[in-house]
Structure formats: structure tokens, C-alpha cells
Amino acid sequence: MAAKVISSGFRYTSLPESYVRPVTDRPNLSQVSECDDVPVIDIGCGDRELISKQIGDACRHYGFFQVINHGVPDEIVKKMQQVGRDFFELPLEEKMKLYSEDPTKTMRLSTSFNVQKEKVHNWRDYLRLHCHPLDKYSPEWPSNPAYFKEYVGNYVTAVRDLGMRVLESISESLGLQKDRIIKILGDQGQHMAINHYPVCPEPELTFGLPGHTDPNALTILLQDTLVSGLQVLKDGKWVAVKPHPNAFVINIGDQLEAVSNGQYKSVWHRAVVNSDKPRMSIASFLCPCNDSILSAPKELIKDGSKPVFKDFTYAEYYKKFWSRNLDQEQHCLEFFKN
Ligand SMILES: O=C(O)CCC(=O)C(=O)O
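That is the input. Now the predicted structure with 2-oxoglutaric acid docked in place:
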């Protein structure tokens, strides 16, 4: 396929061939039930011990959870959602000025996941931005809509602060000092994907994003409150995560699985699409510093046993991750096991 965005304004009546998944690899939407016990954690309640206990339980049993009372002002969230919608409604020619399939670019509009590597495409367009340090990256962000840099800048700053607080609680939940994990991850980068899933003519035949885990440390996902689409793998079954009002979904990524010595699992998740309404999700990824050595602290290694993973840098991991397709059989972390 000559890859190009699907948010072109063209209304498809059938799914183009290059998006059709083999029969054995389809979403089976009718068999997916809603997860009615997703942990919802009041992270602003002020009781650190309770928060880290709830977060620890959620990380052990689910690999993801939602946070409320999170300190990211509602107005900042609403403006972020507005700017995301306004961006994808721009004329095609305007958006295509930012189009690239090169994953090393620090700002690009793209489609699917890794168009140059994958066999079947995904029903998703996305704008991917590097966000930290803000004064380094924000000058290269889109200047249309005119308020893009201001609204997105405020949002990524507030979300970074939330992410750091969550990482402190995760550290405490493992019995470590609160800044222990943050120190291992080093000066973390921050990326963002504004995902746009247009109305899909045949949602049973394709994915917005197939099942995957995130290659980074922690993901803070803002779901579309009106349109569901996120599903996670829980006890071997895909379950739908109903958007909770005013909440963020927090996912454990591959690097926290490594740093926790495998105690916390990077969660498998996917996005499905629908034939009724477009959906938007905004994912913020906290990524370890490129040259930090990602090894589990000695406190988490049982006497005499080997750490589950080899020592590696995030730069090594990230290169391996993007050299592959998203839904390859062998998980990327497997290459880094001892
Ligand atoms: O759209 C969603 O709910 C999931 C997005 C996601 O998994 C990602 O951006 O990596």
C-alpha cells in the first residue's frame, strides 16, 4: 500500500484489503466482556501507604489501573482533547506536511504502527511528539491549530508530574525508597501519541492497534470518555476497559517489568475500532533516559539468584523494538532475558 493517513475525510464503505486480518487474528468483539473491576485509585487522597498498597495490588494482578483525583486540571485535559480533535480535522494537505514513516523522527504524523515493517495495517492515524525537555521539542510541534503548542505544553507538563508521583508510589509498593525507580530510569524522556481512529466500515476484521505491550516505563492514557475501544488481556482473556470519567489509565510498560525484576508485568493491550463514531486516545509515555542501565535493584533479587533480565540500555531496547512489527510472536523483552 502507498501508506497514507486514513483520516482523509473519505468515508470507506468496505475495509481495504491491506487492513484485513487473517481469520485467526481478529478482535472477536462479541466475545469480549467489560472488565467491571478495573482498580480505580484515588491518588490524591493523601494517604501514601494506602495509595502504594493499592497501586502494588493493581500492578501485581492487572498491570494497569485508573487514577482519579490526579491533580491534572480538568481545563488542561479538555483543551488537550480539543486540540487533538481540531488537529485531525485539518485539511488533508495541511496534515500531510507532517507525515513520515521514520520512527526516529521526533515529531511526525503517521498511520497504523510501523508501515514499513508490518504485513497488515491498523486502522489508526497518530501524531507522535517528543515532549521533554519542553523547550527543546515544543518549537518543532505543529503550529496549526494556533493554540497547539500552548495547550499541549500545559498538558504534557501536568501529566509528567502525575507520572512521577505514580512512579514514586510504584517504588514504595515494591518496598523501595520512593525515588529509587526514578533514579534508575534517569532523566526520563516523554513522548506522546495522539491516536485518531476514524469510523471503520468493518471493525470485526481489523484493529486500531493489535495486542502489544508498551516498550517504555509507564504510560498515562487519556481515553475518549464517550467512545470505548481499549481492551486489556486479563487472565488470558481480552476485556474492555470502560472509560471512567476524569480518570487516566496507567499501564506498566516493559521497562518497569525489567526494573521490578519481573514482579510487575507489562500489560498486553489493544485498541478496537467501531463503525459508528471516531475515537481519540492520548497516550503519554515516560521513557528511561537512553543510556540508563535498566537493571533491577539488588533489593529485589533473591539471594543467590540471577536477575530475570540482563543489564541493557533503553537505547538498545528501543532500537530492537522499532526494528520489529508490533504483533510479532516473540515479545521484545524475551531478547533481554538472562
Ligand atoms: O487507544 C488506546 O486506547 C490505546 C493506545 C495505545 O495502546 C498506544 O498508543 O500504545
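The chain has one domain: 32-336.
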